[in-house]
Write a structure and sequence with these properties.
It holds the Pfam family HPS3_N. By secondary structure, the chain is α+β, with helices and mostly antiparallel strands. Among the domains are: about 80 residues, no CATH class; about 55 residues, no CATH class. The protein has a 5-stranded mixed β-sheet with strand order 1-29-28-27-26, with no helix packed on it. A hairpin with a 2-residue loop joins strand 16 and strand 17. Helix 10 runs antiparallel to helix 11. The longest helix has 21 residues. It is elongated and about 135 Å long. The chain starts with a strand and ends with a helix.
Length: about 1000
Amino acid sequence: MVQLYNLHPFGSQRVVPCKQEPAHFCCGRDVLFVASAGASCRVEVFALRDQGRCEPLGSFATLGPVLRMAHSQTGDYLVTIEEKNKATFLRAYVNWRCMSAGSSRVCVRMVGHKMEESYSETLKEQMSIVEMPLSDPPLCISCCPLNGDLLVGCKNKLVMFCLKYLFINQNLTVLDFERSLILHIDNFIPAEIAFCARHIAITTELDVLILKLELVQQSADRTEQCAHSFSTLEKPVDVGVKNEGSSTHTLQLELDEFIICQKPAELLGEESKLCEIPITLEYTELPTEDTKLFQVRYLLFRCFTPDQSPFGFCEETKLHSLQLLPVYQTGSSVTAHEETEIKKELLSLFCFFSLPHAGYLYSVGKLVELISTYQYSEKSEQAVLTPQFLHVITSENLQCFTVRCSAAAARDEDPYIDTTVKACPPVTLDVCTLRMQLFIGPRAICHFKNHIILLTKADTEDITERRKPTRKMLSRKADSIKSRTNSESEPGWNLYIINTVSTIQLYREMVDYSKTYENVKTESCIHLLSEAHLLVRAAVMDPHFFKSDEKEEILRAFRESCAFLGDCYSRFDTKDYHLALPYYRMSGLSMTEVLKRLVSEGDEIQMYERGFIFYLTHSLNEDLNEELSEESANKVLQIFCLADPVQLPHILCSPCMRNVCPVTAVKYLQKVEKIMPSVVLTLTKAFMALKMGDLTMYEHEMDSCKETVLGCGFIGQPKLLRQWKEGIVMPTEFAVHLKETQPGLLVAATVALHENSKIELEEADTFFKMLCGNKESTIPQLLVDFWEALLVVCSQEEILQELLLRLTSQYVLRILKKQFPETKPLKTTEDLINSCNHFGLIFPWVTFIMSMGSPSAKDYSEYTSKLQSLLCSQSINIASVLPILEPLTEDGNVGLTIHVLCNTHLGKYEEAIDQLLERCPDAAVLYAQHELKDDNRAVWWNKLLPELCKRARLTGNDCPVFISSLKETLSVVAMELDLRDFLSFLPEDGTAAFFLPYLLHCSQRKVLT
């Protein structure tokens, strides 16, 4: 559906002072080329100035009448198809600007001719005409706006010429062309072609085909590769193309007075291969290492039929105005100088073509899809597409339609644009007609920057028809009319430059126009403001934007349009109410400014729509740096009390509401509590009580629920404990108070937040350090308590090992420095052992060794026992903590137990026994009894028995502990080994009497078994 608005996109108009009647015209970088009609074979050149002013630059002769012409911005050359003696010629006019400087020198040469022979230092200021011979007459032409390559359409083929830059000498660079590729298309006669970024669009009378030349990897044998035919079908079948020959069957049907019409078809993407139009590539350039090889990818095929047009006769239904429109990356460079081309980065590509009464706009870049269909009120003559508008001429009108190119390109540039942060009006938004401007006999149109060039021709028949006499005077004036027709055989024509109004001026008009629908037609108001937004967005995406004098004004208009759209989705009850949030964010408005726009002053009750509440809810629930004034914060409370009272506890916890009046907040919370009580609401009331300094009310609220319930309540609203300020996590007054009065609840709540993914481990570290006022390098006891509590419930292996590593590090640090914690630890070693599998029961031999030393301070021994308990469990990865444990030397009992525990974890039992026999031999047997079991039993007789025998012999009676340990060891060995094996392990120099009891015991056990 097309929306109709009466806006004014067309400004002033000026007449181009052409000497001869124009036949064709096109625009260059800053000039207008006009090819004369009839026998006058010339091209006039006009400079386009500001406000549509047009100044003649000069003219040059052509070989014959110009049939087609096109200008390439890259290379700044003009290419024409000219006719002479019933033959057509393809010519390119290079360096034509020297004609306007007064030079009359012209060099005519064939394509590929040696430049050195035609140019010299003295002759560089001359126009060069490059003639490009073809085996078939050229029918249509198109220049690529990105690289200046030329595509020529002939019967059954397309010929591509690459633009070349030839360096004649240091001061002279000359343009030339090289025929590089021919696309053979059987039974296909192109009416129009368009060429851009290796995309090719072709139309016949009723068919549209869009292709892309894709690069392929070069083969080692390029000759074979070049001869390869890229074809989609082995047997070509004609689909909807008017061929010169027809089958016998078709001829017979026509003789039988049947009319065969191909069904209309639309094939997109991969399906377009089914169009049954085979294409063969033929490479014609000289092969080099840099030669590019291509394959054809079909993007779109569309077939129309004559009966698809609701107006006119069938034979008038033909396609026209084929165009490929590139849209570049925002901020990409454009031509910096006449002879210097800076590469433009293509973002999106669009294709437009039209029937007499309908136009079609497709996106053919990243995704091939139909964007818009344009229905014209009357038969169209020609149309031209720009990034902002579609301009169409009919027999009497110049019409201006909006387009959706900027909406599609914005989504190509940012696929995630439709989020809570950014938004853009949809591609499917209805198109609208901005203006129908009356003209007499519009015939041709083209577009250049903010100018429309329009050719009008008023035929004599049209003039006389308008002056047709009344029936009473008809007989008397018939002869005079006839004679006037003969004498006025020349039609009246004019070539206009119509200056389109600036983006800002049209944007302002659209905004003003939208106000007429503000209280009547909501959708129309949103639609017009969306059109205004897309108009400005297209201006921002224009490559010339960053060099524009209106840059700052356009950016302001962009932000303003976002604000207007945010207002619409906030004030109106629409299904897309959620768009209020991203549009307000793009507008750059603060929450205070939005409130001023939408909330009336005073205490009167307003109705607030979903969009406004949605915006406020999301804005307040996020960690913004903005703080509302007390007045604004209280107004927000009033709004939510009316619109969504359940959200009040969460709203009050927002950092934006820091200045809210706590008394007013409690009053509103008490109203909500009667309707829907909750733990979060109770905690919020306690929070407000703290702000008021009412400790009695605070204790009443906190005592109304169990501590476990309160801990879970913080999960529902973590901002009760921590908030963000300028990207840093900050504890609230509530958290500070809990630290002093209920540290256990604070730690339990933080653990619950972590386990419910409400706070990360690093955030928790910062939170407790900020809370306890510690420096970055020191770890507060409350954070250690948090790690210990988290270890109890943690199930993620990665976080588990990280916690074990951190706790080990802290225990070692405090043992070495003999630090006393600033607060009493919340859990003792016994508490942790009873509640957590990662803290193991301390081994008896560890306890025995610790009892041998001098007693330490209570807190100091607590860290020791926690570290030993960690190492007595199977959870810790001993390899990762070895560097941390290294500072604990074996000199003391603590270091000895730690090192022996590490060796035990690593399976180094012999080293552990050596350490014990050296430092604490009394514990050796106790260690062996606990650790040397099952697969490790052999260590008893392989290591412990020989070591004890050796040490007992060396010390004699001076160390009775070795003797007693030896006896214990012999008892175990005698029980485990056979008599022969037992004898083999006894020392040769031992006293027989000493070993007799064990030998007897061993032999008796053997007899019994």
